[in-house]
Amino acid sequence: MPKRELVFVVEDDPVVRQSLIMLIETLGVAVRGHATGRGFLDDPDCRLASCVVLDVRLPGLGGLEVQSRMTDLGLTAPVIFITGHGDVPMAVEAMRGGAVDFLQKPFDNQSLLERVGQAIARGRDLRQEEELRKIATARLATLSPREREVLALLVEGRMNKAIAAELGISSKTVEDHRASIMRKMQVRSVAELVRLVADSRPRTAQ
């Protein structure tokens, strides 16, 4: 992982691209530029992006198509679109795809910096959520089929006796399964268990 947040600027105009890189670097983050959407997607570090400043009109893959490819690849970095030729339908499509903003050139530098800062914070949250999801999913994978059944009922708030009756097993067996579940999931309370199960479920982007 990079020591600093990593922002990508995808802009085909070299003068504009370098200007944006220098501007965003004033936030104290690492910035990497690409002239094409394909160049960005082929970058092995694209999965580490904290935010992507993406021109709508690019040679080859357009900005909206790059955004769609990012979704297909599971890239959660927030996208800020920039364009000199944007229109309302294009902006609507971008926002529906999860973009955090759609800026018309020329835009105010301070406004862009504020939006990039907000997007970086959002990207950090998304990465933390994804890390928690992976941890929770890995722990769930260690449970036996019966433990998963008990877990589902525990999360619903069922008591041991009710779970025993539902599954046709003894309360003692439920207690044993419950203890095993808590150990494998590495939690100390049902409240923690419920949170961890919730963490295993994918979040809706944006």
Explain what the structure shows:
By secondary structure, this protein is α/β, with parallel strands linked by helices. The chain folds into 2 domains: 6-130, 3-Layer(aba) Sandwich (Rossmann fold), CATH 3.40.50.2300; 142-199, Winged helix-like DNA-binding domain superfamily/Winged helix DNA-binding domain (Arc Repressor Mutant, subunit A, Orthogonal Bundle), CATH 1.10.10. The protein has helices at residues 14-25, 37-42, 63-73, 88-96, 109-140, 145-155, 160-167, 171-185, 190-199, and strands spanning 6-10, 30-34, 51-55, 79-83, 101-104. It has a 5-stranded parallel sheet with strand order 2-1-3-4-5, with helices on both faces. Helix 4 links the parallel strand 4 (79-83) and strand 5. Helix 5 crosses helix 9, helix 6 (145-155) packs across helix 8 and helix 7 (160-167) packs across helix 8 (171-185).
Summarize the structure in short:
The protein has nine helices and five strands, in the order E-H-E-H-E-H-E-H-E-H-H-H-H-H. It has 206 residues and is an alpha/beta fold.
Write the layout of secondary structure elements.
Layout: E1 6-10, H1 14-25, E2 30-34, H2 37-42, E3 51-55, H3 63-73, E4 79-83, H4 88-96, E5 101-104, H5 109-140, H6 145-155, H7 160-167, H8 171-185, H9 190-199
Parallel strand pairs: 1-2, 1-3, 3-4, 4-5
Give the key terms.
5-stranded parallel beta sheet, alpha/beta, Arc Repressor Mutant, subunit A, elongated, 206 residues, Rossmann fold, 55% helix
